[in-house]
Amino acid sequence: MALKTEPIVVNMGPQHPSTHGVFRMRVTFDGEIIKDLEPVMGYLHRGVEKLAESRTYTQFIPLTDRLDYLASMTNNLAYVLAVEKLGNIEVPPRAQYLRVIMAEMMRISSHLMAVGFMINDMGAFYTPLLYMYREREKLLDLFEMVCGQRLTYNYMRIGGLSHDVPPEFLPALKKFVTEMPGFIDEYDQLLKENEILLARTKGVGILSKELAINSSASGPVLRGSGVKWDIRKADPYLVYDKLNFEIPTGTVGDIYDRYWVRMVEMRQSVRILEQAIEQLPAGEVRTALPHLVRPPCGEAYGHIEAPKGELGFYIISDTGVAPYRCHIRAPSLINLTALKDMVVGRMLADAIITLGSIDIVLGEVDR
Amino acid sequence: MDWLHWIIYVVIILVFVLTLVMSFILIERRVVGRFQLRLGPNRVGPQGILQPVADAVKILLKEDIIPSKVDRVVHLLAPIVTFAPAVLVFAVIPFQQAGPGLGFALDAPAAMANLDVGVLFVFAISSISVVGLVMAGWASNNKYALLGAMRTIAQMVSYEIPMVISVLGIVLIAGSLSLADIVDKQNIPFILLQPLGFFIYFLGATAEMNRSPFDLLEADSEIVAGVNIEYSGMKFAMFFLGEYAYALAVSTITSVIFLGGARFPWGLLPQSFIWLLVKILLVFFVMLWIRSTLPRVRIDQLMGFAWKFLLPLSLINLFLVAAEGMLPSGFTWPIVALNVTLAVALVVIWANRFYRVGGAKVA
Amino acid sequence: MTIPLSGRDVAQKVAEQFPKAVNLCDGACLWVEPVSIVEVARYLRDTPGLDFDYLVNLTAVDFWEHFEVVYHLVSIKRNHSLVLRCQLQGRQELVMPSVVEVWRGADFQEREIYDMLGIRFSNHPNLRRLLTWEGFPGHPLRKDWL
User: Fold this and answer.
1) Which residues of A312-349 are buried (b: 16+ CB within 10 A; e: fewer)?
2) What CATH number is given to the structural domain containing C10?
3) Does the distance separating the beta carbons of A301 and C141 come in below 8 Å?
């Protein structure tokens, strides 16, 4: 006589210690094996795209900070690049190099948090996370030196930066850059050969190359699956074409590959920082523009390689002071498309770390 | 005057257990904090000494919420059934041996009941707390609690067996099940004679206590506190204290069986319960060390590790001990060296050739 | 650099295959009839030489008299990009076929367009509101909502 079993639907609700924000998953289990997973989002929806239509171009910049609040400068950068593309506005070279420096510092900070929290989800009771926070604190101190803020920076402006960096910033940054590779080695030493980490991440949450491209995944998720696609090399913006760096790709597309891609990207970011500091020209940091920027009629899609993936702003202007339509292409939302395929057939514990390895931020998913 | 003996020992054991459990709570938070590059709690009282008191007061003042559809009797009894065995275990621990000691001499081992079957008593009683956890999971009328309870049964039962078999090796060497006798026979600590046994016992005990890296039961990033999810107030405090009391019990058993109990190594100084205390703290420190560094294993990896790695190794260990017992005595240091090499070789070979935690058979 | 393909060149190729599909073309974009979007999408994805296998962005705009659905496509192999657009006239009962079968990444983005602007996508496996709750009145990003 066959044993009658029934699938059970568990709601990993919006309040949960490891869903990285208010994110809900309705998971259908058969014992411990996952049969179906349905993500439910929208708990942090604030209507940012609608708000954009009633804010001037410069007034919208602080709102972009709150999208991916763990890597705020890159949101500012993407928006400002889109508006500059729309209005054909030139940016002085010093501002471009400083923007690259800020973006790469932001990338290191975001990856430290992403890797730290993913390992925290695995149960290593905060220790790796707090070690990575030690470095992130140094980065946040540097940011505070520049613009007075630790989380939502509001530093970029249309046509450049809002003000120049203070003189004590560059020596402090140089000191950080010389120490950082040593710290990344320390993390590697603790984590790379850890048997339990390997056992939990190898072969888990696999995303194949074709599915990754078809699901429009981007960032470390796409590169972990073996696709060598990075906007900084494919469609260079700012001064990335003058800097030397490499793009890591994984092989299988499991969680370990994404973790490894993020660690190598941190090293490459340090390399970019070293070169940018060396090549930094003198000059002004902002083109003179009227207070109320009115780009000509038209549309533009400006995209950058944010730490989480490809962040794009699609702006349509009708020569008013506010955009006609501003759409945000959020990498975290689109990376979630493949979550179900990565997780079906595995166990609950794997689902949690797979979500951690995609690295979502709810501010971006919900806008 | 038997009843006087019982009363004195009851008082001693209760004071011992309660103070040490309270200080373990504080020590854990401070030491784990230092591992994580931060200070632990140090505000309440000098160096945070009053922190456990503050915790206790907070928990006592909390409202005791009982969900409406629970099984009342089972829900009430579960914390008690979990906490009591951890304290009961101390009835057979010899705090100090018979003979001359630091400060005062005794004519019988200082244990509440110097049973001839001490080891058996310890393992039998500590298995009862599993029943308590299952009662809690069942009575809570909650999917998460039920999931947690199912995982608990599987984990506890699987890890009992290698643990007990590895202690059997010690019993073979000492020739007696009584804990006081085991301590008496340790002219060199048994950890040197039985490194593999110690390794297996320690891992098994870590899993029995639901500590990292085997703490799926309370994995607060997955099933949000597991079995304890519907408990609040003093009942939750009982579970919490029970966990630390069990940790204390395991540390004590490890110190008595493997590290020589109240004796000072090589008899350089007279024996005293102070050395027992030091050893308990040392074992606890190692447990905290492991907790702060390693991530958690998955449930299927956990089961595989118990049945395919620890169990075969513990059986091999038993055979080796029996074989060495047939050699004439007096060869202590060569046997120590042989055992240490064998232990390291076995673990390395088994891990590389037969089984890895990843669950795959390594071909 | 990602080369933005000229709408006119691609329009010629697409018009050969699907004569009635192409509406307009421009230096930068290509307008296509909504009913034939799935076939054109599949053609663009599978033809060697075009190879648009990556859907970068799918969004929609409310232009008062008509709505426009905009597809930004990129080819990872060849590193060129294209903008594809569809016009839907009127403001009520806007329906068009879904491209989820061609590019999986369109899944959440089409749900968001339905939620925010009220354009229904037929053949979408799970067309429900994404960011607002079930039963939310209206479609927030329309120009006449508030």
Assistant:
1) bbbbbbeeeebbbbbbbbbbbbbbbbbbbbbbeebbbb
2) 3.30.460.80
3) no
Search chain C and give the residue with CA nearest A326.
C61
Rounded alpha-carbon distances, angstroms, from residue A197 to A184, B27, B98, B163: 17, 27, 48, 25
- Alpha-carbon distance B352 to B355, whole Å? 7
Instruction: Give the integer Cα–Cα distance in Å for B297 and B188.
Output: 35
Q: Tell me the C-alpha distance between A85 and A296, whole Å.
A: 11
Number of domains in chain C: 1
Express each pLDDT in C59-87 by its tens digit. Answer: 899 888 888 899 988 888 888 888 888 88
- Residue A332 placed within a domain: yes
Chain B nearest CA to A172, separation (Å): 22
Look at residue A2 and tell me whether its pLDDT is greater than 80: no
- Structural domain contains residue C26: yes
* Structure tokens, C122: 């037929």
- pTM: predicted TM-score of the whole model, two decimal places: 0.86
pLDDT band at B363 (very low <50, low <70, confident <90, very high): very low
B159: CB partners within 8 A, 6+ apart:
B204, B207, B208, B214, B306, B310
- A241 DSSP assignment: G
Domain ranges of chain B: 2-354
Contact A213 C62 (CB under 8 A): no
**Is the pLDDT score of B328 beyond 80?**
no
Name, in order, each residue with C-beta under 8 angstroms of A268's C-beta and a sequence gap of 6 or more.
A245, A246, A247, A248
Query: Which among B36, B295, B357 has CB closest to A130?
Result: B36
pLDDT given at position B285: 92
Instruction: Tell which of A208, A213, A216 to mutate to test the C interface (max C CBs under 10 Å).
Output: A216
Find where tokens 């058969």 sit: A30
Could you write out the three-class secondary structure of chain C?
CCEECCHHHHHHHHHHHCCCCEEEECCCEEEECHHHHHHHHHHHHHCCCCCCCEEEEEEEEEECCEEEEEEEEEECCCCEEEEEEEEEECCCCCEEECCCCCCCCHHHHHHHHHHHHCCEEECCCCCCCCCCCCCCCCCCCCCCCC
Q: How many structural domains are present in chain A? A: 1
Q: What is the mean pLDDT of residues C35-51?
A: 85
- Which structural domain range is residue C28 located in? 3-90
Is A251 inside a domain boundary?
A: yes
Size of chain C in residues: 146
How many C-beta atoms surround the C-beta of residue A91 within 10 A? 21
Asked if residue C101 belongs to a domain, the reply is no
CA distance A55 to chain C (A): 15
- Which residues in chain B touch residue A32, judged by CB atoms under 8 angstroms apart? 299
SS3 category, A325: strand
With tokens 């919208």, the residue in question is A60
**Interchain contact B36–A (C-beta under 8 A):** yes
Interface of A with B in 299-338 (CB under 8 A): none
Is residue C112 assigned to a domain?
A: no
CB of C110 within 8 Å of any CB in chain A? Answer: no
User: Which is nearest to A221 in space by CA: A109, A363, A335?
Assistant: A335
Supply the range of the domain harboring residue A305.
45-366
The letter for the amino acid at C11 is: A
CA–CA gap between residue B126 and residue B82 (Å, rounded): 9
CB contact under 8 A, A197 and B295: yes
**Tokens found for residue C96:** 């068009």
Check A312 against C108: CB less than 8 A apart.
no
